Amino acid sequence: MAQSPMSDRQTAILDLARAEGRVAVEDLAQRFGVTLQTIRRDLSDLAEAGLLDRVHGGAVARKGVVNIGYDQRRRMNEAAKAAIARACAAAIPDNCSLILNIGTTTEAVARELLAHRNITVITNNMNVANILLANPGCEVMLAGGTLRRSDGGLVGDLTQGFLTQFKVDFAVIGCSALDADGDMLDFDMAEVRVSRAILQRSRQAFLVADASKFDRSAPGLIGSLSQIDRFFTDRPLAEPLTQACVRWKTQICLC
User: Fold this and answer.
1) Which of 80, 87, 169, 252 could pair covalently with 96 via S-S, beta carbons 3.0-4.6 A apart?
2) What percent of the residues of the chain are helix, what percent strand, and what percent coil, each to the nearest 5?
3) Is residue 56 part of a domain?
């Protein structure tokens, strides 16, 4: 049987467990404003998915689990990702060039670009390339590099070297986490280096990330929202970060 998509609350619970090591049923119920029974169900679902281990009164992060599997991430927050992708694609005109990086939200953007005409898309994401094959008005350029079978991403020195040959109109990137100070984070340092290279090779940079990334943490620093022209997301940022984006002239686009 196919695994059910994780809810936003379950995603947040998993992120808390990974950040703090252990979560308690009573604390979670108070935090999310739901019953103890609801939290126990959430923890049982996460345990059955192999993401947490149940302990008395709560759960602990399963050792060795670093990031949620790619197929599962693709199913998470699908409606939010679709809305973000539509808004992002609407900001991209015909007759332009862009780079899309690895990520389930950038894949959603690719699907929204199927009606665009005379665009060139450079990507290190084989899934993006396969999606855009259906658009005859799109020239697709796929980076070389080391293939990650888990998500169809291409990373490494060859990928970075390929990207340095271009200067594009738009970069569309995702991230695994967004820190409270506006830092964009990821789990894989090879992917971090590619994302940095993409930002350097674009005239305008767009970030696409749903609100589940606000409560997560990851060790690799891609850069700051100060480097982003438009941030497409589905929930308002905390007021201090919103004010910082005003200073940085980073436009927040709520979808």
Assistant:
1) 169
2) 40, 25, 35
3) yes
